[in-house]
Amino acid sequence: MAQKIYPKILINSYMKSDNEIFIDASFFCAFYNENDALFKKASSYIELLNTKKIFTSNFILLESYTVISQRVSKKAAIEFGKTIQNMPEIKIIKVDQDLEKSSWGIFEIISDKNMSYVDCSTIALMQEYSIKQLLTFDSHFKKHTKQFGYKIV
Fold first, then answer.
1. Domain of 59?
2. Per-residue buried b or exposed e for 60-88, using 16+ beta carbons within 10 Å of the residue's own CB
3. Fewer CB within 10 Å, N side or C side of the chain?
């Protein structure tokens, strides 16, 4: 059975933006699928996450639910969803109309065909909330760290 995310991710202190981190779907999908090639790597980040204020978005969750359902099972995706939605340690940011506009603007200026609209929404959210760290296994984010002022953890 795949490892589950339980409310063991505790937040200690998060006064500075250095203690804030945005989690991408690639992390959730690897962490929740013990057969994923990145499962062990994802699991190794739990201790680090215990020291961070954690953010993600409704877009990231919808992407995660779909991938986990396809790669693990529908039951696992539902279990993941119920767990993650009940974790007060993780702030789920809703992409609203203003963030959609920002996401679209980023989508238009990035020429990289591998940057999805959801990826662009991640950058828009990180800019809006001044989050400087991104936990992702998607390599295409690396190309844009300087342009948008974030770092990959």
1. 23-152
2. bbebbbebbbebbeeebbebbbeebeeee
3. N
